[in-house]
């Protein structure tokens, strides 16, 4: 189940320790440049070893982890937590997060004008 020697693909390791829900999401994050190993942008097939620092930007949050153990297969959450040291900054408090334009329940589908106003508020 777990192995402490050698190396493994970074996308597979990110998925195995449950930092992303699927391996394809991990590979997509690597291709988009959201994954860095020891400060370098990496491709999904990049090898990761024990002691490497992995930075992942996923779901609007930065995760900074140091690999402490290599796993090749997806493991349970308690075992996954032992495979890395989490040095991530704490998430911002809920009060500081900007609320996304939420519509009242039962208000129906937004019109084109409503959609454009929501995009303007979000800065898109």
TrEMBL record:
Residues 8-75 form the RNA-binding S4 domain. GO terms for biological process: cellular response to heat. Gene3D superfamilies: RNA-binding S4 domain. One of its GO terms (molecular function) is DNA binding. Keywords: DNA-binding, RNA-binding. SMART domains: S4. Residues 84-124 are annotated as: Disordered. InterPro entries: HSP15, S4_RNA-bd, S4_RNA-bd_sf. Residues 114-124 have a biased composition (Basic and acidic residues). It comes from the Bacteria. Pfam families: S4. Belongs to the HSP15 family. This is RNA-binding S4 domain-containing protein.
